[in-house]
Structures are given as C-alpha cells and as structure tokens.
Amino acid sequence: MQEQEHGLNENGQPQAAAGEDAAGRQETMPSDQELIRTLELQSQEHHDAWLRAKAEADNIRKRAQTDIANAHKYAVENLASELLPVRDALEAALAADNSTLEAMRQGVELTLKQINGVFDKAAIREVHPIGEKFDPHRHQAMTTVPSDKAPNTVVHVLQKGYLLHDRVLRPALVTVAKAPDGGGA
Description:
The protein is an alpha+beta fold.
C-alpha cells in the first residue's frame, strides 16, 4: 500500500503522473502567445478569403451592369439588320428613272411584303379592331357616332395600332358606336 502512495503501481512501476498520456508523454497546453499567433493567422486567412469574395462579388456586379447596358444599347440590333433591305428597296425605287406607275406600285408592294416579314419576325402585330368592343388599353377613341351596332363597339379605324408581343406600341385610333340619339358611350 505504501508503494501506491509514492506513485508506484501494484507491479512496482511508477504510476503516470497527472497530465501524462499512456505513452508517458506529458500533454502541454500551448502558451498564450502561441494561441494568439494561431488565432491571428486564422483571422488573417478569413480576412483574406472575405476580401477575395468581396472582390469577386464586385466583379460580378460590374460585369452584370455592363451586360445590361449592352443589352439595352444593342436590343434593336436584329430588328435594325432586318430593316436594312427594306430601306435598300425604297432607295432603289426612288433612284429608278423612267419608272412606270405600275412598276412603282409593284415595287412598293414588294417592299411592304418585306416590312411585313420583318414585323412577323419581331412579333409586331397590327391592331385593326373593327367590330370589337372598345378597349381603352389598345384603342384610342377619336370620336363617337350614332350607330345601330352595340354601344362601345369600334365602327371605324382611322389608324391601325400595333402590338409588340402583348404590349401596345401604338393604340389604334378608332371611331366608337354610341346608342342612336340619346344614349352615349
């Protein structure tokens, strides 16, 4: 028993002191300075990573702004390239000497076909609403006239309107029916 009190185990060998592991090595706590240095290094690594991430985010934002500016600047590029042959056809018609009225008419009809093709490619559609109910989002009423048609029906189109997909580029200028003598639209 006495041997155990002096740090010997039952086989007579010295017992491991507190803080030593099974292999006999003593665990040591890092000094405060070592701990501070380790934490400073980790802090610097995190700070550097944060700076890189911030710079990358700024670069992405700047690239996106440039892309958006270019998209706005060149949005009509396809439409413009489709319109160039139409302009060429009109200029050729004006430059032609000794054109007959019939030749001029045929040239204008072909040019109109070209521009209709451009409109189709660009999803530009006519608004020609005779007989439809007046829609203030797509039509602009220029006047009302007494008519036997239902009130608020478009009876005459003064100027066609146009849609780009479903957005109004230009409303149709229309005459709208009102009830004959006494009713109004």
